[in-house]
Design a protein that fits this description.
Order of helices and strands: HHHHHHHHH
Shape: globular
Number of domains: 1
Distance between the termini: 58 Å
Number of helices: 9
Strand content: under 5%
Structural class: mainly alpha
Helix content: over 70%
Length: about 190
């Protein structure tokens, strides 16, 4: 396995500046297809370091997630209606509506739910596009960091751990401030019964 990572790393290094184009596209393809994303994320960490690698991994994963969602939204529902009973689709739609943004965000943190499946599945349901985008953007951050940094090396992580903790805290606080400022919470919440 170590040789595999080494070979990919050498190929990407040979790509020079094009590696910054190729690496996110590889991550996007992995997000669209049912292929584990851990290996490309680790390679990103090896090639671009913890911060650059995480950014490349996150951007590529977002690109693939949006592509999957939009394809499923445009083409998947008619196919699903032919393959599944209407009652099954209706139950799935109701479940997604009841779960709200919190359920979608929580699903991103659960390792048992495949990233690709969630992208395609969300496109088949009435999940609002904005809700899908922001929960995906936030929900994939921990995985992007963990897998990318693991490719960079555990010894490097331990040396730089205080900086990572500070950066993660700043990112979380910034996100919370942005949500409060833009009113996403009140806009995205269902009004409930009156």
């Amino acid at each position: 396995m170590e040789q595999f990572f080494y070979d990919i790393g050498e190929w990407m290094r040979a790509a020079g500046p094009w590696a910054y184009v190729v690496a996110p596209l590889v991550m996007a393809a992995v997000a669209i297809l049912p292929i584990p994303a851990e290996a490309p994320a680790m390679v990103n960490g090896m090639l671009f370091g913890p911060v650059g690698g995480t950014a490349v991994t996150w951007c590529g994963a977002m690109l693939g997630a949006v592509a999957s969602f939009e394809i499923a939204r445009a083409l998947g529902r008619p196919a699903a209606e032919k393959l599944l009973k209407p009652s099954a689709l209706s139950r799935a739609d109701d479940f997604v509506q009841r779960a709200g943004w919190g359920g979608l965000l929580l699903a991103r943190f659960m390792p048992l739910i495949a990233f690709t499946v969630l992208n395609w599945g969300a496109g088949l349901t009435p999940v609002r596009r904005w809700r899908f985008l922001w929960t995906t953007a936030v929900g994939i951050i921990p995985g992007a960091i963990v897998f990318t940094v693991s490719g960079w090396g555990l010894t490097n992580v331990l040396e730089k751990l205080p900086w990572f903790a500070l950066a993660l805290a700043a990112l979380l606080l910034g996100w919370m401030w942005w949500r409060r400022r833009t009113g996403i919470e009140s806009e995205d919440e269902d009004p409930g019964p009156k």
